[in-house]
Amino acid sequence: MIVIGNEILSGRTKDKNLGYIAERLTALGIQLREARFVADDMEAIADAVNAARAKYDYVFITGGIGPTHDDITADALAHAFGVGIDHNPEAVAILEAHYEPGMLNEARLRMARTPDGAVLVDNPVSRAPGFRVENVYVFAGIPAIMQAMFEGITHELTGSNPLHSRTVSAYLAEGVVAQRLGALQAQYPDVEIGSYPFYQINRFGISIVLRCTDKARLDQAAEAYKQIVRELGEEPIEGEIH
Amino acid sequence: MIVIGNEILSGRTKDKNLGYIAERLTALGIQLREARFVADDMEAIADAVNAARAKYDYVFITGGIGPTHDDITADALAHAFGVGIDHNPEAVAILEAHYEPGMLNEARLRMARTPDGAVLVDNPVSRAPGFRVENVYVFAGIPAIMQAMFEGITHELTGSNPLHSRTVSAYLAEGVVAQRLGALQAQYPDVEIGSYPFYQINRFGISIVLRCTDKARLDQAAEAYKQIVRELGEEPIEGEIH
Predict the structure, then answer these.
(1) How do beta strands A130-133 and A119-121 pair?
(2) What is the pLDDT of residues A127-173, one digit of tens each?
(3) A5 and A141 Cβ atoms separated by less than 8 Å
(4) How far, rounded to the nearest angstrom, does the alpha carbon of residue B3 sit from its chain's CA centroid?
(5) Taking 80 as the threshold, does the pLDDT of residue A199 lie above it?
(6) Hey, are the CB atoms on B31 and A15 less than 8 Å from each other?
(7) Res B67: pLDDT
């Protein structure tokens, strides 16, 4: 995933798109391997796009496709792919249908510019479309619009076996359980075991997240972990503690 | 900035550290240029570290320095720098002073391992320290601890002239003002002008953020923008509209 925008890197805007896409991809059986946050800088965007599209099955970009001068994502994509950029007739038609006569000015028409070879991504919220070039999807940065665009293309994505997941929590210090957890991981190399300490008022604990494509193996590992918790004198709790 | 952790990329945990560090760096007159989110993967972390430390003045890393098997940031740093890793006597002493006798087990001692040449970063919250190797700072992933660690090292950072900033909002569609905004940007190339549309119930508008090291130039550009808003029949509002 590539998140574009000076406003994120300056701290003015807090990104909400990474969390959304990460969660949805996991549910679709697709592993998000990396995310990059880059400035509104043509070369920085193009470099990030070219590194990612060669390495991963899919690349998702958010931000920088509005009508103002700082929206340069479409140009950066054309630059990255080494292709031209022009007003996309299909996108122009969508905008023409959307705006009242006389309201579709030059700036708004910028939102219809796509790199050559791009396929449009539907925007049911505010019409101005996103687009896809090969394996690179470009969505708006505004979360509500981004989410609608993403949900509109999920049928195009091919996931693998989704990971099953179980979470087991306990009021135990991470340092107390860490060693046995390492041994458990060695015993179940096919189960991804993550350890997430939490702090509450006066109490601290740890949530263990186990993930595996094989449900039976996952349950075995989860039960083995619960046994470890009991041997340490605590009661394992299924799920997270809030 | 480099954020480490499968739990972020799977969407399980929503990162809060990027927003914090971005905002604080901006206040300190340091521009955050890029952020990367990488998995708990030795090579992926080392690659991100080596790319960033060659390119930027400072690199800030969060996550992966706890006591469990999935905490591999210290090892990945040693790998990136091509140096050894061992228990840091100073860090061991901190942990020995913190834990009750018999409670400092092997897993907890893992938190005292640092790459050769590392300087410790104080952790006033839960003691186990972060560290710095050359221009790379390594902080804990838990926000409260990360923030305390970051605030403890800000005196070591050299910022440039901090950017002054003004925000002017108006109930105007971005597409209506975009063209004149582009002309304003061309007239004030030394002022960074960002455009952030917002939606409220039944109303939409745009916040313009102007940033410049020169306060007088910033004010000139802000006044020129307010004039544009008035010419479009709307009232400019200083600051953001919530």
Answers:
(1) antiparallel
(2) 999 999 999 999 999 999 999 999 999 999 988 777 788 999 999 98
(3) yes
(4) 9
(5) no
(6) no
(7) 92
Could you say which residues of chain B have pLDDT below 50? none
- What's B200's domain CATH number? 3.30.70.600
Residues A12 and A98 reside in one and the same domain:
yes
ipTM field? 0.84
**Owning domain of residue B147:** 2-156
Inter-chain residue contact B174 with A67, CB threshold 8 Å: yes
Nearest to B142 by CA among A186, A157, A217, A197: A197
Token pair of A30, please? 């697709």
pTM (global) more than 0.80: yes
- The pLDDT of residue A228 is above 90: yes
Structure tokens given for B11: 């969407």
Say yes or no for a CB contact (<8 Å) between B195 and A70: yes
Together in a domain, B24 and B104: yes
What is the number of domains present in chain A?
2
Same domain, B57 and B135: yes
Residue B164, both tokens: 């002054």
Q: Does A18 touch chain B (CB under 8 A)?
A: yes
Query: Any chain A CB within 8 A of the CB of B240?
Result: no
